[in-house]
Design brief:
The structure is a single chain. The chain is of the alpha/beta class. The chain is built from 13 helices and twelve strands. It folds into two domains: about 325 residues, Alpha/Beta hydrolase fold, catalytic domain (Rossmann fold); about 80 residues, 434 Repressor (Amino-terminal Domain), CATH 1.10.260.130. A hairpin with a 5-residue loop joins strand 4 and strand 5.
Length: about 425
């Protein structure tokens, strides 16, 4: 294997593996222990944190349109999870632009370790995308990270170990509520803009101590990978001032009809319905709403503020056709056209990327990932890819985290990466 300045042709340091795995594993164990304690004590401790819809901090100011994208509108310090952790944290309200090109408010959680940064150059900033996977703002990461409590915080809690490891390394972290105030799951443009403007807000927020020299990276898994890669695709046009050093994403959602059909009727059937309900609600003019029968419309209304973590246990074994006026709704041309607009791969990111996916992913079929790699590579992307042999979706998120983190660390350190596509 070719080496470039002490790295492999994939751009990763060659002796990072076991130590990185031990570090990630120790951090995951510590964070999960913390979260287990929180699960026992949280309801009475955090009952006072209002949902975003009931919190005036999330409301748009009357003069929102007068601010540029990424401008900081307001901020407040918070204690992460309401606990005395050695991390300075703030909620930062900022201006973004939604998929209909209207001014929209956004909220991001900015976290900075209290210890000084001793690494080379400026302290890095990692934009970490929690998979919101939601139809309501109660599932937004900012609510959970402030110490809010209900079933909507599950995805943020699951992803906390990865953010904790970034903070342990001394990196600053920003986690944006990228679905926005309307909780637009499966809206790529809306999500990408929310991520990019959240990065701008964190970078320019004086209290965080960051600035123009800050190396920027992004990482997301599953639904978080969707938002991360939409941001990467849009960056050259929408946010040329946001210069990524590197991006990592795993469990990448591609071919939404295939994902929905794979989940339909099984233990993950709620995911199929989340996809169906989201595209029906987000853009009624696309015609998917017209495909819902009376039962489907009633379920959409009943689940208007639901998270994926609510829908999966609720709809185990359900069939999407039971909510539709047409047979095979998940293969219907109207549904396929609506989801096609949200597929990744329309353009290739210009930043070096590390992309990984389990060959036996039980939530997101690997075929879509393989096809997306081909489209990105055909457009000249620089990618280190991994078809992981680790079993299924969630174990791969943990087991391959060390590779994702190591890739970002090398990019923050300025380690060169070979152009083009390489597999591991």
């Amino acid at each position: 294997m070719n080496k470039i300045h002490g790295t492999s042709a994939t751009g990763q340091s060659p002796h990072r593996g076991p130590r990185a795995i031990r570090t990630i594993s120790a951090t995951v164990l510590a964070a999960l222990t913390l979260l287990a304690t929180m699960l026992v004590t949280a309801p009475p401790a955090f009952a006072g944190v209002p949902h975003p819809d009931d919190d005036p901090f999330y409301a748009a100011p009357a003069d929102l349109a007068s601010y540029p994208n990424g401008a900081v509108l307001d901020s407040r310090p918070i204690a992460l999870f309401g606990l005395p952790l050695p991390v300075s944290a703030w909620q930062v309200a900022y201006r973004t632009t939604d998929a209909s090109d209207r001014p929209a408010p956004g909220v991001a959680t900015v976290m900075v370790p209290m210890l000084p940064w001793f690494g080379p150059g400026a302290r890095p900033l990692l934009s970490y995308q929690v998979p919101e996977d939601s139809l309501g703002t109660r599932c937004a990461p900012s609510f959970a990270l402030r110490g809010g409590w209900d079933t909507g915080v599950v995805n943020t809690l699951i992803d906390t170990p990865f953010m904790a490891e970034a903070l342990r390394r001394g990196w600053a972290v920003v986690a944006s509520d990228y679905e926005g105030p309307q909780s637009r799951f499966l809206d790529g443009v809306n999500s990408g803009r929310g991520v990019l403007d959240g990065i701008r807000a964190a970078r320019d927020f004086p209290a965080a101590g960051l600035g123009p020299a800050t190396p920027i990276g992004a990482w997301g898994y599953s639904g978080g990978a969707f938002a991360t890669l939409w941001a990467a695709q849009m960056q050259p046009r929408y946010a040329p001032d946001v210069r990524f050093a590197g991006i990592t994403s795993g469990g990448v959602p591609a071919d939404w009809p295939a994902i929905a059909r794979h989940a339909d009727g099984g233990v993950q059937a709620g995911l199929a319905l989340l996809i169906l309900f989201a595209v029906a609600r987000n853009n009624p003019a696309d015609g998917v709403l017209e495909l819902l029968n009376e039962h489907g419309r009633a379920a959409l209304a009943e689940d208007a503020a639901a998270c994926g973590s609510d829908l999966v246990p609720k709809y185990v074994g359900a069939r999407a056709d039971d909510f539709s006026t047409v047979p095979n709704v998940l293969s219907h041309p109207t549904f396929r056209a609506a989801t096609a607009a949200q597929e990744l791969g329309g353009s290739a990111p210009t930043v070096p990327m590390y992309l990984y996916h389990s060959t036996t992913d039980d939530v997101i079929p690997v075929a879509g990932f393989t096809d997306l790699l081909g489209r990105y590579c055909a457009q000249g992307a620089t990618i280190t890819s991994l078809h992981s042999m680790l079993p299924t979706h969630n174990p791969t998120a943990i087991g391959e985290a060390s590779g994702a983190m190591g890739y970002l660390a090398d990019r923050f350190a300025g380690v060169p990466v070979a152009a083009g596509c390489h597999s591991r």
